[in-house]
Amino acid sequence: MSKRIKVMQEIGYFSILAVLIGIVVGAIDALFGRVLIAITDFRDLHAYFLLPFLSLIGLIIVYGYQKFGKNTGKGMGLVFAVGNEEEDEIPKRMIPLVIAGTWLTHLFGGSAGREGVAVQIGAVVGHRAGRVLPYPSAGKLLLVSGMAAGFGGLFQTPIAAVFFAMEVLMVGRIESRAVLPATLAAFTASTTSHLLGLEKFSVVLKQEVVFDLSSVLRTLLIGIIFGIVGGFFAFGLKKAKSWSTARFPDLYKRIFLIGLLVSLLLMAFHFGRYSGLGTNLISESFTNGSIYSYDWFLKLALTIITLAAGFQGGEVTPLFAIGASLGFILAPLLGFPIEFAAALGYISVFASATNTFIGPAFIGAEVFGFQHLPFFFLAVIAAYAFNGNQSIYGGQKEIIWELNE
User: Fold this and answer.
1) pLDDT at 405 exceeding the cut of 60
2) pLDDT digit string (tens) for 47-63?
3) Per-residue pLDDT tens for 258-303?
4) Domain architecture of the chain: domains with CATH
5) Per-residue three-class SS string for the chain
6) pTM of the prediction?
């Protein structure tokens, strides 16, 4: 059998498994996402009774991970370690632990996201599927497919999910053999979660912006601002985690004491306005609602503190909220329609903090419309260039390009 036929056969097996991965991950994403929405609604109605107990719930989360988790407490760090062949296995128990921990974090008001859960779910399923095939590359390629399925199933932005999964694992390189399986997994997961009742967030930008020199320069400028903010978030999160680990090496003390601080701050600042995902800020930003000039900063700070304490979730949806609310504030200063500037912020702060740009540009297209893709591309490129080479993912590896004189 020729080498070309072997490669085609290998990709065929990967593709079949990728579809199955997409179905499984999409179903789990739908369950996770729908319960999280219900939890958010319940918390908003009973914030006075739930927010004060965040630190106590943190103790339960730590106990669960220490009792049953093995090394799953590393979260995305473990996913990157396996993807970069520094670790051999992602335990199946990661799925129930990260889901339960995130549900509890959100129920009691922690400021956190959800994409970390979805990507970890996909990574576990993809990694386990990869061990079925007798190919050395199966583990990593199907791990990428699983990550794409997790992201695509939760946000229902499958094109963005494909590039995000490949970009974020190894900056500067895209593995060509991963493209087809990752695409199949992402689209299958997105379709599955949608059929199971998980709704996609999308906004129609009603006001058109003319693509001319003025708008291009303003887009680059606002992208730079978003890039600095996203880089600051990633840098602040890394420093906060480092400080909290050094100051409170005992996980129980860390999550309890910092959790108390988070509860007090959440109650002090508009009693729960900055709890959870930040979808309230996103909604206000795109409906010309009430956005305060400091919303983006308080959401940024409280998300950093929540995650540094050890609560579960992710960073992406809070990053969307930070960017959208900051875009709302910057819009009149740069002469942009509010919804348009909020959309640029939505994707650009995320691009900066994750040190990616192709995936975020397509998120913009899939959420706000492909007709605005040139603006989205310019904004995320500027944000990516001015993020100070920071990333919320400590395990992210970067390919260094050396240019000869």
Assistant:
1) no
2) 999 999 999 999 999 99
3) 999 999 999 999 999 999 999 999 999 999 899 999 999 999 999 9
4) 8-195 (1.10.3080.10), 213-397 (1.10.3080.10)
5) CCHHHHHHHHHHHHHHHHHHHHHHHHHHHHHHHHHHHHHHHHHHHCHHHHHHHHHHHHHHHHHHHHHHCCCHHHCHHHHHHHHCCCCCCCCCCHHHHHHHHHHHHHHCCCCCCCHHHHHHHHHHHHHHHHCCCCCCCHHHHHHHHHHHHHHHHHHCCHHHHHHHHHHHHEECCCCHHHHHHHHHHHHHHHHHHHHCCCCCCCCCCCCCCCCCHHHHHHHHHHHHHHHHHHHHHHHHHHHHHHHHHHHCCCHHHHHHHHHHHHHHHHHHCCCCCCCCCCHHHHHHHHCCCCCCCCHHHHHHHHHHHHHHHCCCCCCHHHHHHHHHHHHHHHHHHHCCCHHHHHHHHHHHHHHHHHCCCHHHHHHHHHHHCHHHHHHHHHHHHHHHHCCCCCCCCCCCEECCCCCCC
6) 0.93
